[in-house]
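Propose amino acids for all 453 sites.
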């Protein structure tokens, strides 16, 4: 089996608070898996004594783990940037359900889903948790597109049996049998990179009986679960009235919460609900763009992390208007800063000053290094408890990006290579890409060692 090596600047998260930078480093990949990573390439190469195919990176390039999108609605991509003038429940009725209902047409699904996967790969997404629609055949088309294009993905056929328009709702029996058959059909594809994920849309559009059946299907097949929770205050109120208990308790009682579950948004979770998430191992997909666009609220990610809950990022297209997780990363930092302003500016006069100078770790905004963790390893941990991705550890799959920082829209003109403080220089490149770069700076994308861009 041939071995491929990437030699040059390497960056990856080892944990929330540890971004490792290796200025003169290498990653060696064989059979799609990382077989070595470090800083002494020539010694490794001699000791390894095998033929290697080398990719030598220039001083303006670096390798980092691929982005993980923990929450994206593939069928909503044609609505990108549209209809962001209404809060959630109105937005669903006016824009989202009409678009999603079109995917009963499998030819339409094929045309759109091919472009969706091309687009997210181009943005550097190596792992995505996709919501599709209620339609089984179209959802299978999305899975086959991800397999064909080589993107790692969880594909969810959406389940909804109430409180949806009559043109876009399933009967309860149909919802259960179609969900079961969907999981079976995706597992039969025997893909190493594409898996089914059980997807009740949200508690408002699912009966308790449907949610219970979906939990059973997930458990019987050992597959993941995704849904939405506490995105919007009206939604929370309806959920609590419908079921007479806390929103998170509804999902817990249905058997939907476990360490294979990711819930999107979680903007308005109460302390008691965070405890339920921690106890069950449930993760959160933080979707800052969508939370802003649909006037849902500012999600306090640090509060969720401090409660011991794993967090990743989601674009939430098309509540979110950008398919790039790198964009979500910057918006996540924005929201974290804004929350900090709210905390510190609400205190008047000299107390305000005191609060700013004394602010403790808990109220400090997230750092860009922590946000990189959320966009890569955090997402991988939130989603893929069984997959070994998210950073460069021996034995994990090589899901990675080659980033060029000396091309439009970033011009660092070789200034990074003055070379006295190589680690700091590399961090400059990383910051420039994170804040000011875009998909044009992502030269190559790899999943499981296979180049897909
Ligand atoms: N809640 C239920 N469905 C949806 C959806 O499609 N998008 C968002 N953002 N929230 C939802
Ligand atoms: Fe969503």
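Proposal:
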């Amino acid at each position: 089996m041939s071995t491929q090596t990437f030699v040059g600047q390497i960056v990856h998260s080892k944990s929330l608070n540890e971004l490792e930078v290796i200025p003169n480093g290498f990653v060696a990949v064989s059979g799609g898996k990382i077989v070595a990573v470090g800083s002494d390439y020539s010694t490794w190469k001699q000791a390894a004594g095998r033929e290697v195919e080398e990719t030598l990176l220039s001083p303006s390039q670096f390798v980092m783990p691929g982005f993980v999108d923990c929450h994206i609605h593939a069928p909503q991509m044609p609505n990108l940037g549209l209809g962001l003038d209404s809060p959630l429940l109105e937005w669903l009725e006016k824009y989202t359900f009409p678009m999603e209902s079109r995917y009963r047409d499998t030819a339409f699904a094929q045309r759109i889903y091919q472009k969706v996967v091309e687009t997210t790969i181009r943005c550097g997404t190596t792992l995505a948790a996709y919501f599709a629609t209620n339609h089984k055949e179209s959802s299978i088309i999305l899975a086959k597109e991800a397999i064909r294009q080589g993107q790692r993905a969880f594909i969810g056929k959406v389940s909804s049996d109430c409180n949806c328009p009559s043109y876009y709702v399933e009967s309860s029996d149909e919802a259960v049998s179609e969900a079961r058959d969907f999981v079976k059909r995706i597992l039969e594809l025997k893909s190493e990179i594409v898996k089914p994920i059980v997807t009740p849309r949200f508690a408002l559009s699912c009966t308790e009986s449907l949610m219970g059946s979906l939990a059973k299907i997930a458990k019987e097949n050992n597959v993941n679960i995704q849904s939405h929770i506490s995105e919007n205050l009206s939604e929370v109120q309806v959920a609590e009235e419908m079921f007479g208990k806390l929103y998170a308790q509804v999902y817990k009682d249905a058997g939907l919460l476990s360490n294979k579950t990711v819930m999107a948004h979680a903007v308005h979770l109460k302390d008691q609900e965070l405890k339920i998430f921690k106890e069950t191992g449930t993760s959160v997909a933080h979707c800052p763009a969508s939370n802003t666009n649909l006037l849902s609220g500012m999600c306090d990610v640090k509060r969720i992390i401090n409660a011991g809950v794993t967090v990743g990022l989601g674009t939430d297209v098309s509540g979110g208007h950008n398919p790039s997780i790198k964009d979500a990363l910057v918006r996540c930092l924005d929201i974290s800063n804004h929350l900090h302003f709210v905390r510190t500016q609400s205190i008047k006069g000299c107390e305000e000053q005191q609060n700013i100078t004394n602010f403790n770790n808990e109220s400090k905004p997230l750092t860009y290094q922590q946000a990189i963790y959320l966009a890569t390893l955090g997402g991988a941990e939130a989603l893929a408890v069984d997959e070994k991705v998210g950073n460069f550890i021996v034995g994990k799959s090589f899901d990675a990006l080659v980033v060029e920082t000396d091309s439009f829209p970033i011009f660092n003109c070789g200034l990074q290579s003055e070379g006295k403080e190589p680690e700091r220089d590399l961090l400059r490149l990383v910051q420039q890409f994170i804040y000011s770069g875009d998909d044009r700076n992502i030269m190559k994308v790899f999943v499981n060692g296979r180049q897909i861009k």
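Residues 73, 88, 92, 96, 201-202, 228, 231, 290, 316, 319 surround guanine (ligand 1) (CB under 6 Å). Residues 353-359 have pLDDT under 50 and may be disordered.
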